[in-house]
Amino acid sequence: MLSHEGGRLRRPQAPTGTLRGREGGDNEKTFKKFVSFVEVWPRIIIFQTIITFVIGYIWTFIFGLNLSSFFSLGFVLFVLIFISIKQNWWLLIFGLAFVCPWLYLVYFPIHWYIISPQVLTLTYLIIGISIFLYGHLIEPHWIRVKQLSVPSTKFPDTLVFISDTQSDSFGYREKKTIDIIKNIKPKIIFHSGDIYNGTATSNSKASKAAYRLLKEISAIAPVYIVPGDHPMSIDEVKALLKPLTNVTFLNNQKAKHILNKTSYEIIGLNRYAPETSLLASKTDCDYRIVLSHTPSPWIQAKHYPFDLMFCGHTHGGQLCLPFFGAFTSGTMLPRKFAYGLFQSQTATMYVTSGIGLEGLIAPKIRLFCRPEIIIIKGQK
């Protein structure tokens, strides 16, 4: 266990049987591929649908429309997208089955001359472009500060929780995040992983931005952080964080932080192989906080006693609909776990919408899902 008291810091040692001893194994690689596939394919279907609609309406406006040409266009689009992302054939078939009924609903009012193709096309294009501009230029930078109240627990110190900062470069979001945290003046900062998009070799600009962000917030208060998603490898993140003496990286490890005679046990879980058994051991600390990149470990962790489990990864869905919420949780859990507060008889979990944006094939937009910084106000 790491001890952090009065500015003295000792690096933690990985417990026996953690991911460190299993990295590179065939079973783990297979599991990672499976998890990545399950998490990404719902987003692919959504984005394929959007692309099909946009190009379909442009086709309608320029050339007119008949049902066979619209379906043919949709099929060609899916084939091209499938080839570009190299997904399985069954995913392509599922995507077509998902989109075709919607294409018919679009075709129906035009076919029966309820509204002209040109008017319908222009209307949808104006609405679509407006939504895209809002989701790309406004909402991703509209960071809110949300005060979290944990039932049955009163923390004596002001704490800040952030996640998924996912820097591409050091820009407005990074500067705004630092300014907000400076104004809050927390005693401890917790980060549940994903600090930049890409890898250090593929995107050095992003890794430098992430380093600068962590350096500046760690000057405000001690930072505890856990592994996020690959391609950011464990070793890569460790190397990046090594010069930051006030940042503690927990990979299936525990740390102890003593602040004004109040002791915190901080348990950081690995993203792909979480050692939830770490939660079973008894502790003499006043408060237990669990950091996990995803909410997936909640299924096992909820049976253990702790005060708060903080998770990210889901981005709150990133693209949401009013009265419906997220399309997917981005995990193997139901979509309701994409965002919010969850409780069991012995524990509480909060899943945040995070700060940054998806770095893979997803468009750089947020819709009805603002980025957030979580604060727990100290109560004496």
From TrEMBL:
Q: Which SUPFAM superfamilies match?
A: Metallo-dependent phosphatases
A single Gene Ontology MF term assigned here is: hydrolase activity
Which spans are transmembrane here? Answer: 40-59, 65-83, 90-115, 121-138
Which terms are listed as keywords in the entry?
Membrane, Transmembrane, Transmembrane helix
Map out region (Disordered) in residue numbers.
Answer: 1-25
Give a Pfam family name. Answer: Metallophos
- Start and end residues of each Calcineurin-like phosphoesterase domain: 159-316
- Write down what this protein is called: Calcineurin-like phosphoesterase domain-containing protein
Q: Which organism is it from?
A: Candidatus Abawacabacteria bacterium RBG_16_42_10
